[in-house]
Predict the structure of dTDP-4-amino-4,6-dideoxygalactose transaminase.
Amino acid sequence: MTLDTLYQIITLPKRADPRGVLVPIELETLVPFPVRRLYFIAKADTALPRGFHAHRRTREAMVCTSGSCELRLRTRGGAETRITLNDPGQMVILEPDLWREMHDITPDAVLLVMASLPYDEADYIRDAAEFVPQPYYPPITKVASLDLYRENAAFQPELGAAVQRVVASGWYVGGPEVKAFEEQWAAYCGAKHAVGVGNGLDAMELVLRAWGIGPGDEVIVPANTYIATWLAVDAVGARVVPVEPDPNTFNISAETIRPALTSRTKVVLGVHLYGQSLDHRPIRQLCDEHGIKFLEDGAQGHGALVDGIRVGAQGHAAAFSFYPTKNLGALGDAGAVTTDDPETAEAVARLGNYGSKVKYVNEFKGGNSRLDAIHAAALSAKLPMLDAGTEHRRSIARHYQKRLGNIAGLQLPIAPTDEQSHVWHTYVIQCRDRAGLQEHLQQRGIQTLIHYPIAPFDQQAYAGYGLEPTDYPISRRIHANCLSLPISATHTLAEIAYVCDAVADFFTADRSRSS
């Protein structure tokens, strides 16, 4: 492992006035792991260094709240660095398998340390001779696109308690766990209402039904998206009207939507694709000008923020999936709808519950699409760490941009000026020799995915729809060249460095073959 993959420095928000300095550390957004232990180091003897150990599994975050000290770090390979800690607005994240020593600790120094695991002496490597020759972690030879076991293992205590709580409660469908998560998700998104449903596809369909969308109506959708977006429109009998995305953001925009508007257009169904938020203000303004609804497909955009407004509060309503692979994933299928409109929220809730508000009293024909209590409890347990996971995804994206940015023949996603607008659900590159690159990475043990291998307009399901694939050259190019590299809240920077090396090797070998 290289040194730059084993630590990172994070700048904390710092507010100073005549009364002193305030440095808030939001554990859920700034510390990239659940904090299981917190301790202080204070009143140290300057002549006596501390530390002299590495951890096998524990991640740590360290802040020098007053005074100063020198933090010395060393890898097993002997690479070293020294960091002066003297600013409470600076936090150092230390990964496992990194030797650390603290020297020149001033008498007034107070160090705050946050750890990802409870104290366990077996986790410590205290003998420097033991640390050097035999690395705790074997060399990286495999990197999964996403390891769901590892994703959920980080929340094992919370998830275990949540499951036990639901089982003991006797409420398995609906009930207090669902209500609690609905309130939490609405508050997080900045919406007035949230309604739990069975999955993301149902969420979109239920909103369209609540709005009375049906045969004869048109719904504008992205040409480049997962087919579920289109299927929701077909489920209510309306017609999809695909529009091309902006080639830089992969998202549709007001400029691409406007030419597709007709007198039959009732809804714009925009997707926050790959985790990049739509440029929502022009779209919302366009919809309001024409008296049509703006529905967000927020399945890939959990937590993205533009102009102070999160995904989930940008349109007239938003549909979410909490499929296990999403940035906020349940333990199975789950979804939700957010909206500021109480009538939409009420209609969605009834439509998902057989058209009923009171048991056995059905005002209209509905279906069965409800959020199970066990999934709601799991989502409530994981929600507090969503922003921290997002920050880690952003650090991975920055690493990719830095390491792969100058490779000819490789097109990276354009990183937005406002980092908050992208939550990096996927990291999608484009390469003309996608098959060759994917095979090369597979040989190196790296799993990649294609989002998506077949565009909706090329699917057999829409063969009789009268669409002309030649009308969508941008989407066709994206689908032909796109490849998703590993990214998640639990990938280590060492794993990402391994991926970067493998990608770079492919293009180096390709140039050698061409010369």
The longest strand covers residues 60-66. The first helix runs from residue 27 to 30. The chain has 15 helices and 25 strands. Residues 151-384 form a domain with the Aspartate Aminotransferase; domain 2 fold (CATH 3.40.640.10).
